[in-house]
Amino acid sequence: TTGYMDTGQLDENIDHLMADYLACGLDVERCNIFLQSHVKEHAELHLLLSMMTPLSWLERCPTYKAQLEALSDKEITTYGFLGYPCLMAADVILYKAEFVPVGEDQLPHLELAREMVRRLHSLYDTQIFPEPQPLLTQAKILPGTDGRKMSKSYNNTISLGEEPEAVRKKVMSMKTDPARIHKDDPGHPDICTVFAYQKLFNTPEKVDEIEAACKAGEIGCVQCKRALHEKVAAWHTPIYEKRSDLLNHQRPYLRELLADGSAKARAIAGATLQEVLRAMQIDY
Q1: CATH 3.40.50.620 domain residues, the chain
Q2: What is the pTM of this model?
Q3: Residue 239 contacts by C-beta under 8 Å, 6 or more apart in sequence?
Q4: Angular region, 96: left φ>0, alpha ψ -120 to 50, beta rest
Q5: Is the CATH code 3.40.228.10 the one for domain 10-141+251-279?
Q6: In a structure prediction context, what are the per-residue pLDDT tens digits for the chain, which is 284 residues long?
Q7: Is CATH 2.40.50.140 the classification given to domain 152-247?
Q8: What are the start and end residues of each CATH 1.10.240.10 domain in the chain?
């Protein structure tokens, strides 16, 4: 949607994302992983949803407005970008998902998907899809390293494929409390990017300890970043190493998994799409 003019890396990105999933521990015996573009029903359901979704619904999406401003240097005033929620909805409802793991910033998109479901059901007097509900994790939303919304478009992410030294540099350059000039100045952890990550990588008791030390000026930002990096590295490095092994020695296996998963997905997606076409009376 934002990188449509540069497709040269897509093929490589497929292998990298598969390696990400497996390195993070997804079990292919329990998770069906497939390539969206190999299941054409996604594009067809997206088209049908786009025909019945009011333009005002898409324009009010807060993520759309925010990214238009943040990525003003890119030509993204396209239908593909505006209508992306229709494709997201198709991705979810095509498999009749009841719950979707999302970040807090994606809740408006999921609500929009539910509205599309209600509209389709109302227009064609049918009941095909459940209304998907959010499944929020402990980290409902995590800022980027610069304090803004985390996005590859902003180049403020920490990738699973980044070398450990690159991760260290990113952690050590994270944005902190701008009002804190000296090490012993009282801090404001609620506006600190580093503290947002500390909450994810530490126990509640340790988080309380870090918060109190920051507010009292007993811990400096550099010291806090170093402690955070130790936690991040302990989690990131094993994933990085497993990911590297998959990409260096097991690429055919990754593609085999994708082919098998896409075949399974097509069978389910095809049956669901036929339900939609029958309800719309266009299954000829």
Answers
A1: 10-141+251-279
A2: 0.84
A3: 23, 24, 160
A4: left
A5: no
A6: 777 888 899 999 999 999 999 999 999 999 999 999 999 999 999 999 999 999 999 998 887 877 777 777 788 888 998 999 999 999 999 999 999 998 888 899 999 999 999 999 999 999 999 999 999 877 777 899 999 988 887 889 999 999 999 999 999 999 998 888 888 899 999 999 999 999 999 999 999 999 999 999 999 999 999 999 999 999 999 999 999 999 999 999 999 999 999 999 999 999 999 999 999 999 99
A7: no
A8: 152-247
